[in-house]
Amino acid sequence: MRACGDDSVATKRNLVEILRFRHFSRHVVFDAEGDKYRNKRIEDYITVSVVIDMECGNTKN
């Protein structure tokens, strides 16, 4: 049993963003202050990013 991508060939990974948009929805966010999450604030949107993970390498096998 071999690990995935263990062909002794250098592979290169790329994250390609294909879509980015804002989803408008009011929600609560807690900001970190040291080791504790204390500061609460309300945000009106979430930024959504859709990406694909492209892995390039030896495809002849």
* Cα-to-Cα separation, first versus last residue: 16 Å
The 3D shape can be described as elongated
Give the oligomeric state. Answer: single chain
Number of strands: 2
Largest sheet: 2 strands, antiparallel
Strand-pairing-aware structural class: mainly beta
Helical run tally: 0
Helix content: under 10%
Give the uncertain stretches in residue-range form: none
Strand content: over 45%
On the 0-100 scale, what is the average pLDDT?
80
What strand order characterises the main sheet?
Answer: 1-2
Task: Report the radius of gyration as a whole number of Å.
Answer: 20 Å
Q: Please, could you describe this protein's structure?
A:
This protein is an all-beta fold. The chain has one domain (about 10-55). The protein is about 0% helix and about 70% strand. It contains no helices and two strands. It has strands at about 10-35, 35-55. It has a two-stranded antiparallel sheet. Strand 1 and strand 2 (about 35-55) form a beta hairpin. The model has no long low-confidence stretch (mean pLDDT about 80).
